[in-house]
TrEMBL record:
Name of the protein in its database record: Methylated-DNA--protein-cysteine methyltransferase
GO CC terms of this entry: cytoplasm
Function: Involved in the cellular defense against the biological effects of O6-methylguanine (O6-MeG) and O4-methylthymine (O4-MeT) in DNA. Repairs the methylated nucleobase in DNA by stoichiometrically transferring the methyl group to a cysteine residue in the enzyme. This is a suicide reaction: the enzyme is irreversibly inactivated.
Annotated source species: Pseudomonas batumici
Catalytic activity from the UniProt record: a 6-O-methyl-2'-deoxyguanosine in DNA + L-cysteinyl-[protein] = S-methyl-L-cysteinyl-[protein] + a 2'-deoxyguanosine in DNA; a 4-O-methyl-thymidine in DNA + L-cysteinyl-[protein] = a thymidine in DNA + S-methyl-L-cysteinyl-[protein]
Main location: cytoplasm
Length: 165
C-alpha cells in the first residue's frame, strides 16, 4: 500500500493566512498562523493550489458573505469520539452559537463537556467545520486555534450576515 500524497496551499483570509492540507481523499486540515500545528509543509508535501482550488473558492465565498455552508470532501483524522463531536459541529447553523454542554448532550454523552471541549480544540478543519460557533455556557468566548480575535471576527461576520438574510 502506498502512502497518500499530501497537498497544501496557503491562502489569504481576513483572519490571517490559512494553510490548507489535503490528500486524494479530501481536505485534512486548515491551519492558522497561531495554530498548534505549524504553517510549514512537511517533507514530501506538494504545493498544489489546483488541488485545493475548490476549498479556496468556498472559503473566499464564505469570507465575502456569499456562502453559509461548505460542500467539500473531508478526510478528517481523529478518534471515533472526536469524529462524533466534529459531526455535531457541522449541524450548528450559520450565525448561531452553542455550548460544549449542548454538544455533549447532542452526542448522548451529557457528562463529557470537557472532552467535547478537547475534541473541539482538535478540529482539524476549523471554519469549515464550525468549532468557532461553540462558546462557554456563560456566553464567553473560549479558546480557538486561530486565537480569540479570529473567533470573535468569525462570530461577528456570521451575525452580521445572518441579520441580512
Amino acid at each position: 500500500m502506498t502512502a497518500s500524497r499530501i497537498y497544501y496551499d496557503i491562502v489569504p483570509s481576513p483572519i490571517g493566512p490559512l494553510m490548507l492540507v489535503a490528500d486524494d481523499d479530501g481536505l485534512r486540515e486548515v491551519r492558522f498562523e497561531l495554530d498548534y500545528r505549524p504553517q510549514t509543509p512537511l517533507d514530501g508535501w506538494l504545493h498544489a493550489p489546483d488541488k485545493l482550488a475548490q476549498v479556496r473558492m468556498q472559503l473566499e465565498e464564505y469570507f465575502a458573505g456569499e456562502r453559509v455552508e461548505f460542500d467539500l470532501k473531508l478526510n478528517m483524522l481523529g478518534t471515533d469520539f472526536q469524529k462524533d463531536v466534529w459531526q455535531a459541529l457541522v449541524t450548528i447553523p450559520y450565525g448561531v452559537t452553542t455550548s460544549y454542554g449542548e454538544i455533549s448532550r447532542q452526542i448522548n454523552r451529557p457528562k463529557a463537556s470537557r472532552a467535547v471541549g478537547a475534541a473541539n480544540g482538535r478540529n482539524p478543519v476549523p471554519v469549515i467545520v464550525p468549532c468557532h460557533r461553540v462558546i462557554g455556557s456563560n456566553g464567553t468566548l473560549t479558546g480557538f486555534g486561530g486565537g480569540l480575535a479570529a473567533k470573535q471576527w468569525l462570530l461577528e461576520h456570521e451575525a452580521q450576515r445572518f441579520s441580512l438574510r
